C-alpha cells in the first residue's frame, strides 16, 4: 500500500479501479516536411486553427449551458489563445525556416511558452500552463486527425489518474463514470480545481510523481476530504474506507432532511448559517443545502479566464442572478479580492511582486485602481435596489484604508443619486477581519462598519507567518493555534462591545470542531461552502450554547495547537461521532 498526500480540492471519497490517462495522448509522427512544401503546411495549420477554435467555442457553449457562463468563459479564452496571431506567426516561422511539420512546430512553440511561464516561478502562472497544453492537444488532434475522445469513451466507473487535467478535460468529465480524479500536478487556484468542485467530483491535485507506481485497473482510493490518494490499499484500509463511504452516504441522506429545519442549539440559540459562493450559479446550492443566505460572494471569480475586465453591466447581471434565486435572503457581496493566490488579467502587472501575499492585493489593488473599483461599487449599489445586498471590504489593514474605501463608496452613491439611479441608501457596509492589524484594531473599526466577517483563511497565515498555499509550512498553518484562537476571540469581544454582528467566513466555519469553538466564543453567524452547511447545522442542533461556551473557555486556556486539536476532537467525538468517521 502506498499513501500519497496532495491538495484536497473537491471533497468526497471514492474507491475504484484506476484509469491512467495516457500523458502522450496524441503522438507526433513526422517532424520534417518535404522541401518547398511549407505554404501547404502553413495552410494546414491554419485549417486546424479554425477547426480547433470552433471546437473550443462549442465546448464554451456546452459548458456554459451545463455549468454557467463563468465556466464556459474558460473555453472562450482557449479559443482566443488558439487564434492568437503571435502563435500563428511563431509556428509559421518554424515551418518555413526550419522545415518542421505543423505538429512538431506547434509542440515546440507551446513547450517554449510553457517553459517561460514555469521559469517565472509563479504558482498562478504555472497553473496557466495547463491552458496552453489544453490548446496544444486540441490543435494536435485536428492536425493528426485522431479525434481521441478518450475521456468520453469510459464504459465503467473509474478513478481517473493523470499527470494533469486541463480545465476542458475536467469540465467534460462524466460524473457518473468518473468517481474521482487525482493528479500529480496542479494547485489550489487552478481552473481544474474550481471546475472539479462545481461538478462535485472528489479530487486531489498536486500529489507529485505517482503515475509510475500505478497501472490501469489497480484498485485505488481518493480521499478528497483529506487530500489523499491510496494506491493498492491493504484490506484494513479498504474496509475502513468502505465503511466510511457507507456511513457518509447514510449520513448525507439524513443531512438532506435537515434542510428545512432551523439551526438552533438545544438550549434555543439561533445560529445563522450562510453559504460562501464563487459563481452566481452556486446560489441554487444555498437553497438546496438549507443555508440562510450568502455570507461571502467571492466576486473576483467574475474575472476568471478573461482578457478584459467585466463591465458594470456584467457585474450587475451577476448580482441580480444571485438575487433572483434568493429573493428574500441576505447576500454579502465582497468587493474584488484579487492578487496573491488569485489570478486575473487585472493582476498581470503584479506578477513580478516578490511577496504577493504581502503586496498589492485585494482592497489595496482597488484603492490603487479606483476606476476599476468604482465599476464594481456602482454595480453592487444598483443591485441593492432589488434585495438584501450587503457590501464587504476584504483585506482591510488600517482604519485609514477602511475610511478611504467608504469615502469612495459615498462618492459613488452621490454619483448614482445625481443620475437618479435607485439604490439602497442604507446598504449595510462591513469589513473582513483577516489581517492581524485589523484584528488588533477591531474596537476602532467596529465603530465605522455595520458588521464584521472574520476571514480565518488569511488571518491564520498572517498571524503565523505561514503561506496558506505552501505545503512546506502547512504544519504551522493551523486553525488550532492558540494565538489564532485568542485573536478571533478578541475580535468577537470587540464586535459585541460595539453591538455589531460578526461572522466567520473562513474554512474554520466548515469544520465541525471549530464551528463548536466559534459558537462557544459567541459567534451567531457562520459562513461556509454550501456542501458543509448541513453538517454544521446538524452540529448546531446537537449542542447547547452553554456547553460550547465552557469548552471554548477551556480551549482559550490551552498552550499548544496539539492540545487544542485533541480536546476539540474529543468533544466532537462525544457530540457527533459520525462527523469524524471519514
Ligand atoms: C479568508 O481569508 O478567510 C476568506 C474567506 O477569504 P479568501 O479565502 O477568499 O481569501
Ligand atoms: Mg481572505
Protein described:
This protein has 582 residues and is of the alpha/beta class. It has four domains: 2-24 and 149-234, Phosphohistidine domain (Glucose Oxidase, domain 1), CATH 3.50.30; 38-144, PtsI, HPr-binding domain (Enzyme I, Chain A, domain 2); 298-427, TIM Barrel (Alpha-Beta Barrel); 445-582, Alpha-Beta Barrel (TIM Barrel), CATH 3.20.20.60. Helix content is 48%, strand content 13%. The protein contains 21 helices and 16 strands. The protein has an eight-stranded mixed beta sheet. An eight-stranded parallel beta sheet has the order 15-14-13-12-11-10-9-16. The structure holds phosphoenolpyruvate (PEP) and magnesium ion. The site of phosphoenolpyruvate (PEP) has 10 residues, from strand 10 and helix 16.
Amino acid at each position: 500500500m502506498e499513501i500519497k498526500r496532495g491538495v484536497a480540492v473537491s471533497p468526497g471519497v471514492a474507491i475504484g479501479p484506476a484509469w491512467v490517462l495516457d500523458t502522450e495522448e496524441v503522438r507526433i509522427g513526422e517532424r520534417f516536411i518535404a522541401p518547398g512544401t511549407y505554404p501547404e503546411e502553413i495552410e494546414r495549420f491554419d485549417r486546424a486553427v479554425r477547426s480547433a477554435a470552433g471546437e473550443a467555442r462549442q465546448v464554451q457553449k456546452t459548458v456554459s449551458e451545463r455549468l454557467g457562463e463563468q465556466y464556459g468563459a474558460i473555453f472562450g479564452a482557449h479559443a482566443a489563445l488558439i487564434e492568437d496571431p503571435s502563435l500563428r506567426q511563431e509556428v509559421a516561422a518554424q515551418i518555413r525556416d526550419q522545415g518542421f511539420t505543423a505538429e512538431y512546430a506547434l509542440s515546440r512553440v507551446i513547450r517554449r511558452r510553457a517553459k517561460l511561464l514555469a521559469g517565472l516561478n509563479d504558482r498562478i502562472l504555472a497553473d496557466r500552463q495547463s491552458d496552453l497544453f489544453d490548446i496544444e492537444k486540441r490543435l494536435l488532434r485536428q492536425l493528426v486527425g485522431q479525434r481521441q475522445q478518450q475521456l468520453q469513451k469510459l464504459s465503467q466507473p473509474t478513478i481517473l489518474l493523470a499527470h494533469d487535467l486541463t480545465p476542458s478535460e475536467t469540465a467534460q468529465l462524466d460524473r457518473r463514470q468518473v468517481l474521482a480524479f487525482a493528479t500529480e500536478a496542479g494547485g489550489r487556484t487552478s481552473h481544474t480545481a474550481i471546475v472539479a468542485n462545481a461538478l462535485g467530483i472528489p479530487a486531489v491535485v498536486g500529489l507529485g510523481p505517482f503515475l509510475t507506481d500505478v497501472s490501469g485497473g489497480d484498485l485505488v482510493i481518493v480521499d478528497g476530504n483529506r487530500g489523499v490518494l491510496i494506491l493498492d490499499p491493504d484490506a484494513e484500509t479498504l474496509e475502513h474506507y468502505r465503511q466510511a463511504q457507507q456511513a457518509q452516504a447514510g449520513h448525507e441522506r439524513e443531512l438532506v432532511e435537515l434542510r428545512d429545519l432551523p439551526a438552533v442549539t438545544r438550549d434555543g440559540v439561533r445560529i445563522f448559517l450562510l453559504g460562501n459562493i464563487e459563481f452566481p450559479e452556486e446560489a441554487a446550492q444555498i437553497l438546496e443545502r438549507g443555508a440562510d443566505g450568502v455570507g461571502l460572494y467571492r466576486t473576483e471569480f467574475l474575472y476568471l479566464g478573461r482578457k478584459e475586465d467585466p463591465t458594470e453591466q456584467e457585474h450587475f447581471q451577476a448580482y441580480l442572478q444571485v438575487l433572483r434565486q434568493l429573493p428574500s435572503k441576505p447576500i454579502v457581496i465582497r468587493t474584488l479580492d484579487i492578487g496573491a493566490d488569485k489570478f486575473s488579467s487585472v493582476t498581470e502587472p503584479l506578477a513580478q511582486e516578490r511577496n504577493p501575499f504581502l503586496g498589492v492585493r485585494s482592497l489595496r489593488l482597488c484603492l490603487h485602481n479606483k476606476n476599476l473599483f468604482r465599476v464594481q461599487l456602482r454595480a453592487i449599489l444598483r443591485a441593492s435596489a432589488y434585495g438584501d445586498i450587503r457590501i464587504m471590504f476584504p483585506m482591510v489593514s488600517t482604519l485609514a484604508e477602511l475610511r478611504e474605501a467608504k469615502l469612495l463608496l459615498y462618492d459613488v452613491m452621490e454619483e448614482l443619486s445625481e443620475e437618479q439611479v435607485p439604490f439602497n441608501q442604507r446598504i449595510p457596509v462591513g469589513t473582513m477581519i483577516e489581517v492581524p492589524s485589523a484584528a488588533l484594531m477591531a474596537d476602532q473599526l467596529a465603530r465605522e462598519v455595520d458588521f464584521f466577517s472574520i476571514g480565518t483563511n488569511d488571518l491564520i497565515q498572517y498571524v503565523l507567518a505561514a503561506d496558506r498555499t505552501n505545503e512546506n509550512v502547512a504544519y504551522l498553518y493551523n486553525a488550532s493555534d492558540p494565538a489564532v484562537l485568542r485573536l478571533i476571540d478578541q475580535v468577537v469581544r470587540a464586535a459585541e462591545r460595539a453591538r455589531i454582528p460578526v461572522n466567520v467566513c473562513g474554512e474554520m466555519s466548515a469544520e465541525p470542531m471549530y464551528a463548536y469553538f466559534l459558537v462557544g466564543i459567541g459567534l451567531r453567524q457562520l459562513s461556509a461552502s454550501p456542501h458543509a452547511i448541513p453538517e454544521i447545522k446538524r452540529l448546531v442542533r446537537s449542542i447547547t450554547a452553554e456547553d460550547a461556551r465552557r469548552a471554548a473557555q477551556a480551549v482559550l486556556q490551552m498552550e499548544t495547537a496539539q492540545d487544542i486539536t485533541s480536546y476539540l476532537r474529543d468533544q466532537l467525538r462525544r457530540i457527533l461521532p459520525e462527523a469524524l468517521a471519514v
